[in-house]
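Reminder: ligand-aware prediction takes two inputs, not one.
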Amino acid sequence: MMKSSLIVVVVIIIALAGASILVFRSSNGTGSENIPPPGENENVDGFRVFNMTAKQFEFIPSTITVDRGDNVRLQVTSADVAHGIAIAAFGIDETLPPGQKVTVEFFAENAGTFPFECSIYCGSGHSGMTGQIVVQ
Ligand SMILES: [Cu+2]
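Here is what comes back for the chain with copper (II) ion:
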């Protein structure tokens, strides 16, 4: 009697371990499910962190508003084809391979509105794929 209940317990433990491995794998997949939701995250390492999605033919969000003196980190992920993000005022021009999170950082030294744009031709709406950094 004792022996059979011990076996039941062992079987349950093995089943739970197997289930948790499956959960871990499914949360660790690749592709669009890995793209974080657009918007601002909490401050990390003294940076204001924004997740941004690039897709034909827009950046989401397309306006990033920060305060003068902020260190800004954009974590940009393309949801479809290769794009680029060029922010001339901050000397930034990075390629955005599909599905890959690319981090760009800059210091918002001066107030103003600073445009950015897709820097890799991505189709018919490429020239309208723009946004702006607003430094208050
Ligand atoms: Cu483009």
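Confidence is low (pLDDT under 50) at residues 20-31. The first helix runs from residue 2 to 26. We will return to this case in the review session.
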